[in-house]
């Protein structure tokens, strides 16, 4: 039995899943490290991130299933929906992260001179930098997911 080669869409989806996992790791580092955002987790962010990765993995697996007829149409429809759901979930992660961190970042970076000396410690600045890094990571993974949604996961067969 011949193994199908993976299409460019599969590679982009795999890269998106890897970027989403990296985003979750950077976010967990932000929550677990010392500083202003220590133990300040954002509600459902990890759940949405895991669901986005799972949606991408299931879409890739479904694209490898060879089905014809009505079942093939259903598999194709579900795969397309999962390709759309993944970047939407990653966007939700980004939105929740920004809304959960914006007040703290404003406090750290834009406090008046008297308070800034007390607030802008090395731990707090590191925590703020990691928060911004996690936002950028989620943004990049969301954009990669949007790009991946435009690719077909099935390799076109020559007729």
Explained architecture:
By secondary structure, this protein is an all-alpha fold. The protein has one domain. It is 75% helix and 0% strand. The chain is elongated and about 70 Å long. It starts with 7 loop residues before the first helix and ends in a 10-residue tail after the last helix. The mean pLDDT is 90.
Largest sheet: none
The quaternary state of the protein chains shown equals single chain
Low-confidence stretches: none
Percent helix:
over 70%
* Number of individual domains: 1
The assigned structural class equals mainly alpha
Please count the helical segments: 5
How far apart the termini lie comes to 19 Å
Radius of gyration: 20 Å
What integer is the average pLDDT?
A: 90
Question: How large is the share of residues in beta strands?
Answer: under 5%
Shape: elongated
Number of strands: 0
How do the helices and strands follow one another from N- to C-terminus? HHHHH
What's this model, at a glance?
The protein is mainly alpha-helical and 159 residues long. It is 75% helix and 0% strand.
